Amino acid sequence: MTVSGRDLNRAAALERYVAVMEGLRVDHLDALASVYAEQARFVDPFNEVRGIEAIESVFAHGFAQCPGMRFVVQARAVDGDRALLRWRMRCDASAHGLSIDGMSELVLGRDGRVVDHVDYWDPAAQLYERVPVLGWLMRRIRRRLAAPTSPSR
């Protein structure tokens, strides 16, 4: 199997993106401009924004809510101009050691920068269930909607 130069460029662009995200710090959000296109779209369970300034604002807010926020990419795949990342986001102890697992679907532009970014993660299981009353309600709903377990065959 041969790998085209375009595929190698996409893989290299994804590795640059991963390096920026894993090294992202609140005082260096300007690094995002090196991996996101000027009018990139960013979507997660709480936000849908367009443009690098808006994306920087989302991450600034994330750092404010989750001190010491760090991303660790656990797996990655590239297929043409699309990339998938499996990641874990962690906060420091002041945020009760919050940890969130998720996936990102990225579309890479011709220059290798991200033009579209959609995050997939479950806020109900990973956030809401940590809130005392809301957590009880979410766990109850989850149990009620879950398929019954069948006996082993």
From TrEMBL:
Lineage: Bacteria, Pseudomonadati, Pseudomonadota, Gammaproteobacteria, Chromatiales
InterPro entries, alphabetized: NTF2-like_dom_sf, SnoaL-like
Every SnoaL-like domain range: 21-117
Gene source species: Guyparkeria halophila
SUPFAM superfamilies: NTF2-like
Superkingdom field: Bacteria
Designated name of the protein: Nuclear transport factor 2 family protein
Coiled-coil features, chain-numbered ranges: none
